[in-house]
């Protein structure tokens, strides 16, 4: 009997590896303006872990943006706030 190695499953839309025991990540695209340069930027937000705060560089001016978002109990994106490093949160 031949035993084939198990290859990770790849989510068709995101290209991310999906564990067979877990659902695919709930990624939502959100467009907003950079607090530094004012250009419109696109963020890919992972709603599967609830509310989060993280740092992401602006794709235009490369400055660090603090991203804070919240999700509903159903796991849908509720709000997204972007802050510069000088903003008081």
List keywords for this structure.
mainly beta; 3-stranded antiparallel beta sheet; 7 strands; two-stranded antiparallel sheet
Low-confidence stretches: none
Strand content: 35-45%
The major pleated sheet works out as: 3 strands, antiparallel
Strand order of the largest sheet: 5-6-7
Q: Report mean pLDDT, rounded to a whole number.
A: 81
> What series of H and E elements makes up the topology?
EEEEEEE
Number of helices: 0
Structural domain tally: 1
**Looking at the structure, what is the overall shape?**
globular
Helices and strands in order, then pairings?
Blueprint: E1 9-10, E2 17-18, E3 27-33, E4 40-46, E5 52-57, E6 64-71, E7 77-83
Antiparallel strand pairs: 1-2, 3-4, 5-6, 6-7
Describe this structure in words.
The protein is an all-beta fold and 89 residues long. It has one domain (9-83). The chain has no helices and seven strands. It has strands at residues 9-10, 17-18, 27-33, 40-46, 52-57, 64-71, 77-83. Strands 5-6-7 form a three-stranded antiparallel beta sheet, with no helix packed on it. It has a two-stranded antiparallel ribbon with strand order 1-2. The radius of gyration is 17 Å and the shape is globular. The model has no long low-confidence stretch (mean pLDDT 81).
Give a quick precis of the structure.
With 89 residues, the chain is an all-beta fold. The protein has strands at 9-10, 17-18, 27-33, 40-46, 52-57, 64-71, 77-83.
């Amino acid at each position: 009997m031949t035993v084939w190695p198990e290859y990770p499953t790849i989510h068709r839309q995101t290209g991310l590896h999906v564990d067979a025991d877990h659902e695919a990540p709930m990624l939502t695209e959100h467009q907003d303006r950079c607090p530094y340069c004012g250009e419109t930027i696109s963020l890919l937000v992972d709603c599967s872990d609830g509310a989060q705060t993280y740092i992401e560089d602006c794709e235009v001016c490369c400055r660090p943006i603090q991203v804070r978002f919240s999700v509903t109990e159903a796991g849908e994106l509720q709000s997204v706030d972007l802050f510069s490093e000088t903003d008081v949160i």
